[in-house]
Amino acid sequence: MATDAHSGSNxxxxxxxxxxxxxxxxxxxxxxxDVVLVDFFATWCGPCQMLEPVLEGLADETDAVIAxxxxxxxxQLAGAYGVRGVPTLALFADGEQAEQHTGALPAxxxxxxxxxxxx
Length: 119
Hints:
It contains 4 helices and 5 strands; from the N terminus they run E-H-E-H-E-H-E-E-H. The protein is an alpha/beta fold. Strands 1-3-2-4-5 form a 5-stranded mixed sheet, with helices on both faces. It is globular and about 35 Å long. The two termini are 20 Å apart.
């Protein structure tokens, strides 16, 4: 049984990427779930499009929540996290930012990254 993003439960992850609607929404998701991988992306970005199915698989396979922030819709949010290029992936664990990587990473590396914080 998956929870929805607004239930406030961190017992289980949600199994599809969650589109962030603004700063407060991102803060709520990061505080409500143990491990959150945030994908700062743009719809026009080729590497972002290639990363999409990888992130969808990770959302289903791992205990992490995969959150997506469209940098064109939320430029202030991207700026607040120092995003200079897309895709940028920020990993949050226990409410704090733990890692940030710019560029598309392979599925295995992302899975290892997530599992390092979910075990």
